[in-house]
Amino acid sequence: MKIQFRLNTTLEQCEAPANELLVSVLRRKFGLLSMKKSCMPGICSSCTVLLNQQPVPSCMIPVFSAAGADIITLEYFSTTRDYEKIMKAFKQQGITLCGFCTPGTVFTAYALLKSGKILSDRQIRDAYAGNACRCIDINGITTVLKKLSLMRRQRCG
Ligand code: FES
Ligand code: FES
Predict the structure, then answer these.
(1) Where would you tag: which of 29, 72, 94, 142 has the fewest CB atoms within 10 A of its CB?
(2) Ligand 1 center to residue 149 CA distance, Å?
């Protein structure tokens, strides 16, 4: 099957079996290795990408369902100002990521902040419920994201 999508802001096309998982296609065809093939039933978040701006586990997405979508991987996202801000705030809070499930941790933070809401503990805990990261302490992440959401809200009036 021929599939077209926008990948890291560039229109791309590839041939792949329709039911091949997106994580495999991104690694095999495009050499994008930030997504790991780890648990593979969608529980560790190490394979997360942004699909139409929403964090999703790419090990759960057959590539045919990503046709026409906008996909962002950590390779591209790590060049953005949003990434820089999130990582700076993590560092200030003493949060260091080993890299294993950085895509899930960072894209979840990005999606929460992008909502423009002042985040509650509950919203943050719920969003990270599917993230099995051993590097993060949920209290630290909650502190960082509440602070960033408040700052963002104040800036936007
Ligand atoms: S490999 Fe996809 S969630 Fe673990
Ligand atoms: S970044 Fe998740 S286990 Fe280290």
Answers:
(1) 94
(2) 27
pLDDT, tens digit (0-9, with 9 covering 90-100), for 79-104: 999 999 999 999 999 999 999 999 99
The whole domain housing 106 covers 78-156
Does residue 27 sit in the same domain as residue 47? yes
Q: Is 22 helix (H, G, I), strand (E, B) or coil?
A: helix
Q: What is the pLDDT of residues 53-78, one digit of tens each?
A: 999 999 999 999 999 999 999 999 99
Among the listed residues 18, 20, 21, the one whose alpha carbon sits nearest the alpha carbon of residue 2: 18
Quick check: CB of 26 below 6 Å from ligand 1?
no
- Domain end marker among 76, 92, 117: 76
**Nearest in space to 34 (alpha carbons), one of 92, 107, 134:** 107
Q: 82 with 59, same domain? A: no
